Amino acid sequence: MKFPLSWLREYVDLPAANAHEVAEKLTAAGLKLESIESVGDDIKNVVVGEVLSIEELAGFKKPIRYCSVEVGEAAPRWLICGATNFAVGDRVAVALPGAVLPGGFEVGSRKTYGHVSDGMICSARELGIGEDHSGILILPADTHLGADVVELLGLRDDVIELEVTPDRGYALSIRGVAREVATAFGVPWRDPADIEPPAFDDEAHPASIADPTACDRFVLRSVSGFDPSAETPMWMQVRLARAGMRPVSLAVDVTNYLMLELGQPLHAFDRSRLTGPIVVRRAEPGERLETLDHVVRELYPEDILITDSSGAISMAGTMGGLATEISGESTELVIEAAHFSATGTARMSRRHNLVSEASRRFERGVDPELPLYASWRAVQMLTAFGGGTAEAGVTHAFVDVEPATIVIPADHPDRVAGVAYGRDTVVRRLEQVGCAVVAQGAASGQAGAEAVPADVLEGPARPDPAELLVVTPPSWRPDLTDPNDLAEEVIRLEGYERLPSVLPAAPAGAGLTEVQRLRRRVGRALAAAGYVETLAYPFIGARDLDGLQLSADDARRRTLRLANPLSEDEPLMRTTLLPGLFKTLVRNVGRGFGDVALFESGLVYRPEPGAPAKAPVLGVERRPSQEELDGIAAALPRQPLRVAVVLAGEFDRSGWWGQGRPAGWSDAVEAARMVVRESGLEPVVRADRHEPWHPGRCAALYVGEALVGHAGELHPRVVEAFGLPPRTCAMELELSVLEAALPGAVQAVPVSSYPVATQDVALVVPAGVPVAQVEAALREGAGELLESIRLFDVYTGAQVGEGNKSLAYTLRFRAADRTLTVEETTAARDAAVAQATTSTGAHLRTA
Fold first, then answer.
1. Quick one: average pLDDT of 618-635?
2. Which secondary structure element, helix H or strand E, spans residue 416, and what is its range?
């Protein structure tokens, strides 16, 4: 909402406060300031002139006029002008040599089209009061010659722009802002809607409401003998332009002006184009309407329409129809003012992607008492400026709506804010908002607190009936529906700065849980290993799943589709972290970073088979039942926490120290091992085939019999589909599985003061035997004396025979209570080899 400060001062007796002070008060009252703009200060040396003569210059591609203009000086000025909408005798705005126009544009004398132009005749856009550049701005004939145009038109002003939230619809008007400013400064104000329309028994035009859920107030008034050529007063054009609206014609400008001033959208119909009575109803199947923007719209059954015998003539509260548009020949007008359903207008506006100034106000809630007063003010202005006659009669169709009341303990704002305001302050502030406040006993003649909602009581105590207030919110505040809304009004008007800053008491506890510690340890471990954490949107598309080469029956293809996705290319909730990491990797490589190691942890969304397609939508008026909560839980997908990495380029960088090492599948497997070890568990690694990994370079990681995830090199088709660098590697683990298998608090093992005994052993095994299986057999056979085992060499060649491989391990033995003898370590080593021979067919390498 943009408005000039001068317009606000018309209704508020402001002290000598500037725009910034006014904006500070509005911000303190809870309204968000968007901007403050000083306009007109840079316009200089523009005066009123009268056109004395016009000479048409020939020989040019466009009309060029050489004009003599009297500006109140000793001699007329001669000016070149390309506009043709003015004549001899017209009063115009003239920028004299040395003048400055908005934007710092300087005007001087110059020779053009073979003549010297001693200044410039200005259009509305050149003066910064609109976008009209089609012709010269024509001033009223009685305008004083030589007068300063800036002072004459009130061009010097401060324009304040507020960002109005959905619950503050009243602030989309000068009336609403004036009330807030007057309260903030503690000064009187004048309500522009405080008028008394004359009473009429006759109808202006027959009208009725067919659907009370769509409209509860509909008012029509008529004007006859209107002059369609009448000009909008210049002060009104300036105010409209300052508020960001384009002046169009007198009839349209009056409705727009009153919408900005009062907050009540109005619409003017050409009565000669109306056929039969007007009816407000919902759309019927197959109906269409060509709106003022020349778009033919297919209407929906829920749309709210204004209709006559010919069908739809307007989309209620959003945009009028072209068939009944005011034209340059319209002399008979019907002015419509109504109160339409806020929800219905909002939904219709979004269905048709049609947002107008009227719909912005209706969807936030318009004062239902305004239509009678706003329509009468419109008639008064049209007759005053357009020479028409107000016809005797008014159509007022309405549906009785009982005003809502709220029962609130007088100390409820005190308990919400933690500040002792007192009963008198609460009553005074609520009355300033416009509420009617009485004690409950005075309102009902009964004592008791039965009408007080349970959520405003604190503990078992019930308030004294004498301290209960019955509050009737004003018609312009539909957002005030419960005691907490009223408490907020008291708190904001008293000042948010009065609220004390009290730190909450830290509850006793044991710090982070084991699960929280694990998540932090995993992130720190990966970062320490050289991986950079990223954060991607949790959305994917069907193309991503195809790129992963997933089979048709893969569980990761069972996804949730968003009702309103940010992008049509990614309408699904992710079932794997990999696509987001792949896209981040491609973006980095495309920007010159070829050696990349990334990781991400986050939730994935895995719908359960047979789950309801849609969760129930519950209200907020009561606590959901257990059955309703179970229904929501059944519709929700499983949301396990996962961690994934992706690697490309060099893992060990090249430099002056020598050649680096490219990232490989073993690095991805080691990253997976690292994550599992952070949980205090030892992973079991097995070869596997699982998309999107290469079938020969894919490892599955288990903890016990539970599958944790996969790691390895990506399939070449996946690399090609996502545009990844060759031999890109990745891993993805499910942290939720590790969290469920956590062994509990880690028990510190006493450090032995006795020396370690080392034994090396080289085993020959078939090439297809997994290293993890050999290692597990050695651990089992070595017994409790084994402290650690490390694979330090893998060899294949003629010395071990075709189809075999040699695995060399270092075994470290240590006892907690003694120094081990050679015989003990040899026996433990032999037992380990024997177990490996039995389990894997291994034998000692002899050469």
1. 87
2. helix 412-417
Structure token digits, residue 124 = 């509305």
Could you give the CA distance from residue 555 to residue 576 in angstroms, rounded to a whole number?
11
Is residue 49 within 8 Å of residue 89, measured between CB atoms? Answer: no
Q: How far is CA 777 from the centre of its chain?
A: 58
pLDDT band at 462 (very low <50, low <70, confident <90, very high): low
CB 4 within 8 A of CB 162: no
Residue 504, preceding peptide bond in cis (omega within 30° of 0): no
Rounded to whole angstroms, the Cα distance separating 277 from 289 reads 18
Residue 447 has pLDDT above 70, yes or no: no
Classify residue 19 as exposed, middle or buried by CB count within 10 Å of its CB (0-12, 13-18, 19+): middle
CB 221 within 8 A of CB 205: no
pLDDT digits (tens, 9 = 90+) for 744-789: 776 777 888 899 999 999 999 998 888 888 998 999 999 999 999 9
Residue numbering of the annotated binding site: 479, 485, 488-489
Residue 459 buriedness (CB in 10 A; 0-12 / 13-18 / 19+): exposed
Annotated binding residues for Mg(2+): 479, 485, 488-489
| pLDDT, position 608 | 87
Render 540-580 in DSSP notation, one character per residue.
Answer: E-HHHHHHTT--TT-GGG--PBPSS-S-TT--EE-S-SHHH
Question: How many CB atoms sit inside 10 A of residue 439's CB?
Answer: 16
Q: What string of DSSP letters covers 602-621?
A: EE--BPPTT--SSPPP--SS
Residue 483: per-residue pLDDT = 94
Tens-place pLDDT, residues 253-276: 999 999 999 999 999 999 999 999
Alpha-carbon span 652 to 648, nearest angstrom: 11
Largest distance between two CA atoms of the chain: 127
Pairwise CA distance, residues 455 & 485, whole Å: 13
pLDDT band at 442 (very low <50, low <70, confident <90, very high): low
Q: Which helix (H) or strand (E) holds 56?
A: strand 44-57
H or E stretch including 304?
strand 304-308
- What are the φ/ψ torsions at residue 591 (nearest 5 degrees)? -105, 20
- 666 token code pair: 């073993």
Distance (Å) of CA 463 to CA 418, 422, 469: 17, 15, 11
Please identify which residue in the block is written with the tokens 């091992």: 673
Using DSSP, state whether 468 is helix, strand or coil: strand
Amino acid identity for residue 789 in this structure: I
Helix (H), strand (E) at residue 340: strand 333-340
The pLDDT assigned to 617 comes to 84
Query: What angle (nearest 5°) sits at the alpha carbon of residue 390, between those of residues 386 and 395?
Result: 130
CA distance 347 to 345: 6
Q: Tell me the pLDDT of the chain averaged across its residues.
A: 90
Give the 3-state secondary structure of 58-79.
Answer: CCCCCCEEEEEEECCCCCCEEE
Give the lowest-confidence range in 109-113, 386-390, 616-620. Answer: 616-620
Q: Name the token pair of 713.
A: 């090199």
Helical spans, DSSP H, in 118-248: 149-153, 174-185, 234-242
Is pLDDT of 459 > 70? no
- Cα Rg, the chain, nearest whole Å: 40
CA distance 527 to 521: 10
* CA gap 401, 341 in Å, rounded: 13
Q: Rounded distance, CA 762 to CA 844, Å?
A: 6
Instruction: Tell me 323's DSSP state.
Output: G
Is the pLDDT score of 460 beyond 50?
Answer: no
The one-character DSSP state at 337 is E
Tokens describing residue 362: 């209706």
- The DSSP 8-state label assigned to residue 288 in this structure reads E
pLDDT tens column, 640-697: 999 999 999 998 888 888 888 999 999 999 999 999 999 988 888 888 999 999 998 9
